[in-house]
Design goal:
41% helix, binds NADP nicotinamide-adenine-dinucleotide phosphate, 7 helices, Rossmann fold, alpha/beta, globular
């Protein structure tokens, strides 16, 4: 276990899914955690209550990270509550899943603003708060759709490719400030996000069974697997890893078919 004792960690989109697991893991490892949500207050409050029951502080902030004013307010609240920030986990994501020929400008803007633009401008705020602590870590959540073609994933996949490029640029620019920036690209993880795929629709393909069968490690990634890797990348052990995207998919994407 890596100690994040008394560190302040922001996990965007941490009321549900992988973000919730990440928030709880950092809290178990000693951190105070900022829980950010957009639409679902109740699960965010529940996550914060669990963090407090572990003896850590938790600040719950509603903010659409795709809105630049809301993003600035999120960081202003962190600064007034904790005075600084040690770790940003860029986890929140949204998107319009449909074929490329059916995408519309609104879906492109929505998805790019929430998934990618928020990393660039969130990192500007985060870096300022991290500099006050002498450094920090940023870990972004990407996905295999950044480099592979997944059904109906064109806009999210493109936003994830932007995240991976941003991580390289931010890693280089923030390295001299002792801020380490990397990304994690997990394979399929069982969360509500999968409800948007056609595997759950009538007549849809059974994507989950298919991916499990074609994964050399024999199972899908869990949110706990993702938390293991994110915490490693946010820890001092990863300080010489700069601007990388680490794939964690049990070998699934290595197979030609
Ligand atoms: N699940 C997978 O198979 C998988 C695989 C690879 C990568 N990932 C990546 O891992 C991350 C987490 O995925 P997940 O499966 O846990 O997703 P999820 O279950 O769909 O949860 C999304 C989270 O993001 C928050 N969110 C959405 N839009 C937001 C916005 N505009 N501002 C702030 N928060 C917002 C949601 O908050 P509200 O509930 O308040 O809306 C929710 O907490 C994402 O970056 C995703 O792309 C997931």
């Amino acid at each position: 276990m890596t100690s994040f004792n008394e560190k302040v960690v922001l996990v965007t989109g941490s009321g549900r899914g992988i973000g919730r697991e990440l928030a709880l893991r950092f809290a178990r490892d000693g951190a105070h955690v900022v829980v950010n949500y957009f639409r679902n207050r109740k699960p965010a409050e529940q996550t914060a209550d669990e963090i407090r029951s572990l003896g850590r502080e938790s600040l719950v902030v509603k903010a659409n990270v795709g809105d630049l004013d809301a993003l600035a307010e999120l960081y202003a609240k962190i600064e007034s509550t904790f005075g600084g920030l040690d770790v940003l986990v860029h986890n929140a994501a949204s998107g319009y899943n449909r074929p490329a020929m059916e995408q519309r400008p609104k879906g492109w803007k929505w998805t790019m603003d929430i998934n990618a633009r928020s990393l660039l401008f969130g990192a500007q705020h985060a870096a300022r708060l991290m500099e006050k602590r002498g450094g920090g870590s940023i870990v972004a959540l990407s996905s295999l759709g950044s480099v592979r073609v997944l059904p109906e994933y064109v806009v999210v996949g493109t936003s994830k490719a932007a995240i991976e490029a941003l991580v390289r640029y931010l890693g280089v620019e923030l390295g001299p400030k002792n801020i380490v920036v990397n990304a994690v690209s997990p394979g399929m993880v069982m969360t509500d996000a999968l409800l948007h795929f056609d595997t759950y629709r009538e007549g849809g393909t059974d994507l989950i069974r298919e991916v499990t069968e074609k994964t050399p490690s024999g199972r899908l990634c869990t949110p706990a697997d993702v938390a293991d890797l994110v915490c490693f990348l946010a820890s001092p052990a990863a300080k010489m890893i700069c601007g990388q995207t680490v794939v964690m998919d049990g070998g699934h994407s290595l197979l030609a078919r």
